[in-house]
Specification:
The complex is a heterodimer of chains A (501) and B (148). With 501 residues, chain A is of the alpha+beta class. In chain A, 59% of the residues lie in helices and 17% in strands. In chain A, the strands form 3 sheets. A 5-stranded antiparallel beta sheet of chain A has the order 2-1-5-4-3. In chain A, strands 7-9-10-12-11 form a 5-stranded mixed beta sheet. In chain A, strands 6-8 form a two-stranded antiparallel sheet. In chain A, strand 4 (118-127) and strand 5 (130-140) form a beta hairpin. Chain A is rod-shaped and about 230 Å long. Chain A starts with a helix and ends in a 6-residue tail after the last strand. In chain B, helix 4 (96-101) links the parallel strand 4 (87-91) and strand 5. Chain B has 148 residues and is an alpha/beta fold. Chain B has 5 helices and 5 strands, in the order E-H-E-H-E-H-E-H-E-H. The chains are: A alpha+beta (501), B alpha/beta (148).
Chain lengths: 501, 148
C-alpha cells in the first residue's frame, strides 16, 4: 500500500475512532441527563396541573378541568392525561390528537415510572391537606429516540466532514512526509538501477526527513567516492594486468628469439667446429704431406752436389745451397704450422698434471745456446702444477722466452716470470727489457704468420699465434703490455680450476 | 742372403733406400710392396712366387695408400707366422702423437725420414744392425735415430 494511502488511512481511522467515541459518550450522557430532566420536568408539570384542578374538582366542574388539561397540547409527547376523583371515577381526560390510549389506574402516592416506551406520572390532587383526586399523565418516550436519531445524523455528517478534512489533510501531509519519502525512494531506485552515484535526493524540509535526505546524500557521496576509487583501482589493475600481459608476451617473444638464436648459434657453432676441424685436418695434412716433396728436393740437391761436385760449376753449388736454405725455411714454416694445427686438434689422451717449473727448465735447456750467446738472465717465480699437456706448455713458454731474447735491445736480456691471481684466474707474466712493441701492433702480433720484423730477425711468425692458441684452448687469455724501448710484458691467464697445486 | 720387405709407395724413397743399403754394404733381397693393401694380402695369403714366406725385416712407411701403416702393423701382429718378424717404421713426421699410437706394436726402430742426406743414408747402417741382431733382441726397441 503506498505511503500516501497509509497516511490517509491513519488520519481517517483516528478521526473515525474519535468521532465514534465522542458520539457514543455524548449519546449516553444525553440519554441519562434527558431522563432526569424529563422526570423533574414532568413532575413539576404534574404538580402545576394537579394544583390547577383542585378548584374544578371542589366545584365539580369537569369542563374547567378539561380546559386545564387542554394546555398539555403544548407538549406533543404527552399522549394522554386524566384526573380521577378520590373514589376512582374519571373526572376529566385529555387525549393527544388521534390517540386512543386509556389512562392507567391512579396510584395513591406520587409516582413516576418508565415502562413500555412510556413514562407514567401519577400525582395526588390535594385541597386543604386532604387528597381529593389523582392526576395521571402518560408521556411518549419517542422523543428520546428522536434525539438519538438527531445525534446519529450529527455524528454521520461530522464524520463525512471529517473525512473530507482528512483527505485534504492527507494531501497536505503527503507534501510534508510522503513526497520526500517517495522522492527518496525514487532516487534510491534510480541509483540502484543506473549505478549512478552522482544522483542526489532533493531536500524538502529541515526536519528528520531532511536529516535523512542529508544522511542519504552523504552516504551516496561516500559511495560515489569509494566507487570512483574502486573504479580507478580497477582501471589501474587492468592497466597493470595489460602491462603484465604485454611484458609476458614480449618476454615470450624474446625467449622464442633466444631459443631460435640458440639453435642458430648451435648450428653455426657446429659448422664452425666442423670447418675448424676441416681446417686443422687440412693444415695437418698439408704440412705433413708438403714435407715429403720438400725432403726430396733437399736430399736430391745434396746428392747432386755430392755426386757431381767435381764436374759442375762452383756457382751451381751456391745455387744448390740457396735451394737448401729455401727448403729449410719451408720446413720450419711447415713444422710450425703443424705444431699450430696440433694444438687445436682433438686430443683423446687424458690430461695429466704438468709442472710449469719443469717446463720452464726444459725450455731453458732447449734455448741453452741462445741464452748463452745473449747472456740473458731468467728469473722464475714458483709456478703451479697445471692439468693439461706438456706438449702445449713447452711451446708456450719457449716462444715467449725466445721472443724475449730475439727481440732484445742493446741491454743484456733480463727475463722475469711472475705469477699473480685475479678472480678465478691465475695470471702469469713474462716480462723482458727488450725493444718493446708499438701499441697499434698489440693484437696483430698474435695473428699467425704476421711479423713486425723482416728476415733480419729469424722467425716464422707463428710463435705467438701458437701461444694464443694454447692459452685459449685452456680457457685463458693472452695479451701484451709494452713500451717501445723499455720492454714488453706478455701476460696470460689460466682458470684456477686447472691448478693441481 | 736376408730378405727385407719394404712397404713404401714413394719411388724416390725406394731409390734412396736402395742407395742407403748400398752405401752400408747391406747385401739382401728387397721385396717391394707399393701400398698397404698389397702386403696385407700377402700376409693373409702368401703368393707362390715368393721364395720365402717370412722376411728377416719389414721396413714400413706409415703413410701408405689403401691401408695405412697402422693397419698393416695390426695385420702383421695378428698373423701367426709374421708376429715375430722385426719391424722398423719409417715416417716423415716425428710427431709424438703419431708415435704414441705405435707403442703397442713392438717396433724395433722408429726412423724419421731426414731431409739431411747423411742422416738419411744412415738408415742403411741401422738396417744392417737390425739384420745382425736377427730375432734375438725382439721387443727391445731402441730409438737410435730419434735425434735425426
Amino acid at each position: 500500500m503506498p505511503i500516501r494511502q497509509k497516511l490517509m488511512l491513519i488520519v481517517m481511522a483516528t478521526t473515525t475512532v474519535a468521532l465514534v467515541l465522542a458520539g457514543i459518550s455524548i449519546l449516553f450522557a444525553d440519554f441519562f441527563l434527558f431522563r432526569g430532566y424529563l422526570k423533574n420536568d414532568l413532575s413539576a408539570l404534574s404538580r402545576i396541573i394537579a394544583d390547577n384542578t383542585t378548584a374544578p374538582i371542589e366545584f365539580d366542574d369537569p369542563g374547567a378541568a378539561a380546559e386545564t388539561l387542554g394546555t398539555l397540547r403544548a407538549r406533543p409527547h404527552v399522549i394522554t392525561a386524566c384526573v380521577f376523583r378520590n373514589d376512582g371515577r374519571l373526572f376529566a381526560q385529555y387525549r393527544r390528537a388521534h390517540a386512543t390510549a386509556a389512562c392507567p389506574a391512579p396510584r395513591s402516592a406520587e409516582d413516576i415510572r418508565f415502562g413500555g416506551g412510556f413514562l407514567t406520572v401519577s400525582h395526588p390532587i390535594v385541597f386543604k391537606s386532604k387528597q381529593i383526586g389523582t392526576f395521571v399523565l402518560v408521556y411518549d418516550l419517542g422523543e428520546i429516540v428522536e434525539r438519538v436519531e438527531l445525534y446519529g445524523a450529527t455524528v454521520v455528517s461530522v464524520f463525512v466532514l471529517a473525512t473530507l478534512v482528512a483527505v485534504l489533510l492527507s494531501s497536505r501531509l503527503r507534501l510534508l512526509i510522503a513526497t520526500p519519502i517517495v522522492e527518496l525512494a525514487r532516487v534510491t531506485t534510480r541509483v540502484s538501477q543506473q549505478r549512478d552515484y552522482s544522483i542526489r535526493a532533493r531536500k524538502f524540509s529541515g526536519d528528520e526527513l531532511g536529516t535523512l535526505v542529508d544522511a542519504f546524500n552523504e552516504m551516496l557521496a561516500g559511495i560515489q567516492s569509494r566507487d570512483s576509487e574502486l573504479r580507478k583501482a580497477l582501471l589501474a589493475r587492468e592497466a597493470a594486468l595489460d602491462d603484465a600481459q604485454n611484458a609476458r608476451a614480449s618476454l615470450e617473444a624474446t625467449l622464442e628469439n633466444v631459443a631460435r638464436l640458440n639453435v642458430e648459434l648451435r648450428m653455426s657453432n657446429e659448422s664452425l667446429a666442423r670447418s675448424n676441424e676441416d681446417l686443422e685436418r687440412f693444415a695437418f695434412i698439408a704440412s705433413h704431406d708438403l714435407q715429403e716433396p720438400l725432403r726430396m728436393i733437399s736430399i736430391y740437391s745434396q746428392l747432386l752436389v755430392r755426386r757431381f761436385a767435381h764436374s759442375i760449376d762452383p756457382q751451381a753449388v751456391s745455387f744448390v745451397d740457396n735451394i737448401e736454405a729455401g727448403t729449410k725455411r719451408m720446413r720450419e714454416l711447415l713444422a710450425d704450422l703443424l705444431a699450430y694445427a696440433e694444438i687445436g686438434a682433438r686430443n683423446e689422451d687424458v690430461s695429466e698434471p704438468v709442472d710449469l717449473n719443469l717446463v720452464v727448465e726444459k725450455v731453458r735447456q732447449n734455448l741453452a745456446l741462445a741464452i748463452a750467446e745473449s747472456g740473458a738472465t731468467i728469473s722464475v717465480a714458483p709456478l703451479p702444477l697445471i692439468r693439461g699437456f706438456e706438449s702445449h706448455f713447452t711451446p708456450l713458454f719457449q716462444n715467449l722466452i725466445s721472443n724475449a731474447i730475439k727481440y732484445r735491445s742493446q741491454q743484456t736480456p733480463k727475463i722475469d716470470i711472475t705469477t699473480g691471481g685475479t678472480n678465478g684466474y691465475i695470471r702469469i707474466c713474462v716480462a723482458d727489457n727488450g725493444i718493446g712493441i708499438p701499441p697499434q701492433y698489440y693484437s696483430k702480433i698474435f695473428v699467425a704468420f704476421k711479423r713486425l720484423h723482416g728476415q733480419r730477425i729469424p722467425g716464422t711468425g707463428i710463435g705467438l699465434a701458437i701461444c694464443q692458441r694454447v692459452v685459449e684452448r685452456y680457457g685463458g687469455r693472452i695479451w701484451v703490455e709494452s713500451e717501445v724501448g723499455s720492454g714488453s710484458n706478455f701476460i696470460f691467464t689460466l682458470p684456477v680450476g686447472l691448478i693441481v697445486r | 742372403m736376408p730378405t727385407i720387405f719394404l712397404v713404401e709407395d714413394n719411388a724416390t724413397d725406394v731409390e734412396l733406400f736402395r742407395l742407403a743399403l748400398r752405401e752400408a754394404c747391406v747385401d739382401c733381397e728387397l721385396v717391394l710392396f707399393e701400398d698397404g693393401g698389397e702386403i696385407i694380402d700377402y700376409i693373409l695369403q702368401p703368393k707362390a712366387g715368393l721364395r720365402r714366406a717370412r722376411p728377416d725385416l719389414i721396413m714400413l712407411d706409415l703413410n701408405l695408400p689403401k691401408n695405412n701403416g697402422l693397419e698393416v702393423l695390426q695385420a702383421i701382429r695378428q698373423a701367426r707366422s709374421f708376429a715375430e718378424v722385426p719391424v722398423a717404421v719409417l715416417s716423415s713426421s716425428s710427431s709424438p702423437r703419431e708415435r704414441a699410437k705405435l707403442a703397442a706394436f713392438n717396433i724395433r726402430e722408429f726412423i724419421v725420414k731426414s731431409p739431411d742426406l747423411d742422416a738419411y743414408l744412415n738408415v742403411g747402417a741401422i738396417v744392417r744392425a737390425l739384420l745382425e741382431q736377427g730375432g734375438a733382441e725382439q721387443g727391445n726397441a731402441v730409438a737410435r735415430v730419434e735425434s735425426a
